[in-house]
Structures are given as C-alpha cells and as structure tokens.
Write a structure and sequence with these properties.
With 376 residues, this protein is an alpha+beta fold. It has helices at 14-23, 115-119, 146-149, 152-162, 180-187, 193-196, 221-228, 316-343, 358-370, and strands at 30-34, 43-49, 52-59, 62-67, 82-84, 95-96, 102-104, 125-131, 134-138, 170-176, 239-244, 264-270, 274-279, 283-293, 296-305. It starts with 13 loop residues before the first helix and ends in a 6-residue tail after the last helix.
Length: 376
C-alpha cells in the first residue's frame, strides 16, 4: 500500500519546505502558547512559526499577536523569548499602541514623514484566537475559519480541558535533526511504543498494543480511501484518543482539580504539529514540532499539572521531575527519528502503511493535495 504515501524526498527537499511555509504554516492556525504566559499588561513571549518571527503580548486591548518586526528597519520589537516590556523598538525607540499603531517617533524631523504616512505606520497584526487558555495564530491576511481546521466538538473539548491547566508551567525547547512531519507521524503510531519505549512508557500502559480487527475479511479503510480518490477534510486530521494506564496514585493527585478521575492517557492531536496530552487527569504536556529546515525541527515542550486547589502550593520541583521523565521518552524517539532522517536518499522508496496507520494515510493524502498540489 504505497500509492498514497509521500516519498522521502518531501522530508529532505528545500522546495517542499518552501511549499509548506506558504501553503501549510502560512494558511493554517498554529498553536503558539498559553494565555497564562501573558497574564499581565505588557507581558509578552516571542516565537517563530516556520521561520516567521511572532510576538504575542497583552496590551490595553487584550492579547494581541504581531509580526515581531518594526516597520522601520525590521528590528525585532521584543528581543527576549519572554518578559514584560512595552511595545517599543530597541533600535530607534519607535513605540506602538495596543493595536500596533505608531504612538511615538523620537526625533521626528529626521524622518520627514507626512501626516498621512505617519498615520499608516503600524506593526503587522496577526490573527489570533483564544480557545480556553490556548492561543492560536494565523499568518494569512484572510485566514480560514478555525472551525474548518478543528471541528466544533474538538474545540469545545480543548476549551474545557485547557481551563483546567495550572498556571505554573515548565518549558523547554531543543533542536532535533529530523523533519517535523516524522514527529507528528510518530506520535500517532502507537505500535512503536513496545519497541522504542520498553522501559519508559510501556510499563505504564495497561493495554500496550490495540488490535484493530482479528478478521482478515474486514474491508480495508486505506484501500477504500484510495479508491474514493477524494482528499479527507482538514478537520479529520485532528482528533482525540484515549488509552488505559495502569492504576497509580501520585502524591500530588489530591492537590489538584483533576481533568478526569481515570487512569488513562489522553491525546489531542492538533494538525499540523501539536500533540497535547493528559496523564491520569493530573498533569498535562504539549509537544510542538516547529520546522526550521527540511532536516531540522525545534521541539517545544510545555508541562503543567491540573489546576492546583491552593495557589500557594509550589510545584517547581515536581515539574522539574516530570519534564525530565518526559525528555527521557522524547530522547528515545529522537534517536530513532534522526537515524531515519539520515537514511533518506534517492534510493528510498515511498513509505508503506499498515491498516492501523489510517490516520497517517489521511495526513499524506491531504498533504499531497493541499501542499504539493497533486490531483486526487
């Protein structure tokens, strides 16, 4: 079953990478952070979205997103990854108002701008949507509806879940030497867990591998999709899953307002590049795979517990322990994916997918149509 699959060249090609920046990350909504990161006026954080510098800041108008470039000489407005500072360019001290409009221009006689020219100077504002406490940005001038990318049911679930996230957050970012798509495919592939994570993740699972069917006469979903020759809907690429975990009572469980009082591992896969998870209803993690180049990915990781019942409880040490455990699992995946990336070449055939990988097939079909421009 390879007719539907991407060729490895699309994981190494600069031309494909440029198409992704234009047709994928330039059009879709991308998660950038949490509202708790900009809880006060002038609190900000900066990101890159497929190479585009993004600034998210709370102003008098609320949470706003801008291209992190001053219109004068394109200097970054905010130089740090996070902080608290007005919208003032550090290069020539141009200052901007709540919606990015020019407010102050030191030494105006040096510029000789007309009143009309000055009136038109502003930061480029980006479209931003809040889903509960989750923040999504769209780089397009005319973005698609958020409900076209994520179903209304999924958005309601994300809003409900995100309101239970604690505001004490730990974050890390590291560089991985593989294409971002490999990571999004990897997290949707539950069958790798017994082989890649036998001592870390696997021991916690109650049912390590789920069988989709024991009947060889069951019709193939993959073959049916290929024969229909119709690309899947964008919203079908994002969905929730749930897997049983072995019972375990963490010491901090009674100190939190749990998402659900169940021993389960919840995933919310958010296309194109986010895996949002909850472990036993007691702590959360969000992984994001941000493309830097065809073979380089920035791996963002946020972790927090469920909302503390008492804000005076300090989980600093706990969060440090949790992120070290998560990084151990990530490192196991990284070793496999970096070797995989390194093996790609003209000798490589298209990927093959088994029946349990139907979600990967949907990703590939949509990608071939919408990013590569291939006909169905």
């Amino acid at each position: 079953m390879s007719r539907h699959a991407l060729n490895p060249e699309h994981y190494t090609s600069q031309a494909t990478f440029e198409l992704e920046r234009e047709r994928l990350f330039g059009r879709l909504w991308t998660f950038v952070g949490f509202a708790s990161m900009v809880a006060e006026k002038n609190r900000f954080f900066t990101r890159k979205v497929a190479g585009v510098p993004v600034l998210v800041q709370r102003t008098d108008a609320g949470i706003r997103a801008f291209l992190n470039q001053c219109p004068h000489r394109l200097s970054a407005i905010q130089l740090d990854s996070h902080g608290k500072r007005p919208l003032v360019c550090p290069y020539h001290a141009w200052s901007f108002g709540p919606e990015g409009e020019l407010r102050g221009l030191p030494n105006p006689g040096l510029y000789q701008f007309t009143a009309a020219e000055r009136e038109g100077i502003c930061l480029r504002k980006l479209h931003l949507r809040e889903v509960g406490t989750m923040l999504f940005v769209n780089l397009s001038e005319q973005p698609l509806a958020l409900e076209e990318q994520f179903s209304p049911e999924l958005l309601r679930e994300l809003e409900e879940v995100s309101l239970l996230l604690d505001t004490q957050v730990i974050y890390s970012c590291h560089t991985a030497r593989y294409n971002w798509k490999l990571n999004m495919e990897n997290v949707k592939d539950y069958n790798h867990v017994p082989f890649v994570h036998p001592r870390t993740f696997l021991p916690a699972m109650a049912t390590p591998v789920r069988s989709i069917s024991g009947d060889p006469e069951t019709p193939s979903l993959i073959k049916a999709m290929i024969s229909e020759a119709t690309p899947p809907a964008l919203a079908s690429l994002s969905y929730p899953t749930r897997a049983e975990l072995k019972p375990h009572e963490s010491w901090f469980r009674p100190l939190c307002d749990l998402y659900r009082d169940e021993h389960a591992y919840y995933n919310w896969f958010l296309y194109p590049n986010v895996n949002f998870c909850c472990v036993r209803g007691e702590h959360f993690l969000l992984q994001q795979y941000d493309p830097v180049s065809p073979g380089v990915t920035d791996y963002h990781l946020w972790m927090m517990t469920a909302r503390r019942k008492d804000d005076r409880t300090d989980f600093t040490a706990l969060l440090s322990t949790l992120i070290r455990g998560e990084r151990a699992v990530i490192d196991e995946d990284t070793r496999v994916l970096e070797r995989l990336q390194d093996s790609f070449g003209n000798h490589s055939p298209p990927f093959m997918h088994g029946e349990y990988e139907v979600h990967l097939v949907r990703q590939h079909q949509w990608y071939r149509h919408q990013v590569l421009g291939e006909s169905a």
